[in-house]
Every structure is written in structure tokens, then in C-alpha cells.
Amino acid sequence: MCRFEVLYDRPEEGFAYVAQGGAHVMLEQIGVGRNWLTGPLERPLGRGVNFQIAVPEIGPICSSLRDAGWPLFLEPETKWYRTGDSEVGVEQFLVADPDGHLLRFQAPHKG
């Protein structure tokens, strides 16, 4: 739904390597294959995690999520952030995955 492409996977290990542009993510299913757990897992698992994913434009991803009936955590917005002595504008939105991880897709502001 977020337009990631599965580059390769190992279903018997509950593993997939996915990419969306320059963002590459390794996903592992809990309790399958080789898990590197640093502590007890309590739901929601993604509490406090926010992944920023830079994309050329956010529109196609929003459309895919809406078509699938997936709710957005934060609707698309234009936001300006201070970066040292200047500001940078981005178009962004947030969506939560089933484990509660927030994915913040952002593209450069065009305007």
C-alpha cells in the first residue's frame, strides 16, 4: 500500500527486504526465523518510533492507502522546518503500520 517493492524475501524465515526509492527496510516476523530481541515485546510494538521516508511525491502513496481503506495518522500537509539559518518546506503525511510504527512520508515542497 505504501508502494514499497519487495526486493527479496525468505518466507520460511518470516523475512522481507523492501525498498521505496532510496529507503530500504528489512522486515522480520516475530517468532519466525532468527529474531534479535533486545527486550520484552509489548503491544503496540512501534510505540515512540517515527520513520521518515523521503519520496519524490506523496500523492501516489496517499492514493494507494486511501484506495485500500487504510487510515492516515496525519493528513497531508505542507510544513516548514528550520534547518540551521534557513528553512526547508516539505509536503508530508503520517500513517501507522499494524504494529504502531509511524511512517512519515515527505517530499520537497514544490511552490
Describe the protein in words.
It is a single chain. This protein has 111 residues and is mainly beta. 8% of the residues lie in helices and 46% in strands. It has one helix at 59-67; strands at residues 5-10, 15-20, 23-28, 50-54, 74-83, 86-96, 102-108. The strands form two sheets. Strands 4-7-6-5 form a four-stranded mixed beta sheet, with no helix packed on it. The chain has a three-stranded antiparallel beta sheet with strand order 1-2-3, with no helix packed on it.
Quick description:
With 111 residues, the chain is mainly beta.
CATH architectural group:
Roll
Q: How many structural domains does the protein architecture include?
A: 1
How would you characterize the largest beta sheet?
4 strands, mixed
The CATH top-level class label: Alpha Beta
In oligomeric terms, what are we looking at?
single chain
Number of strands: 7
- The H/E string reads EEEEHEEE
Low-confidence stretches: none
- Radius of gyration equals 16 Å
Q: Name the CATH superfamily classification.
A: 2,3-Dihydroxybiphenyl 1,2-Dioxygenase, domain 1
- SS-based structural class? mainly beta
CATH topology: 2,3-Dihydroxybiphenyl 1,2-Dioxygenase, domain 1
Tell me, rounded to a whole number, the average pLDDT.
90
How does the overall form come out from the CA principal axes? globular
Helix content: under 10%
Q: Roughly what fraction of the amino acids lie in strands? A: over 45%
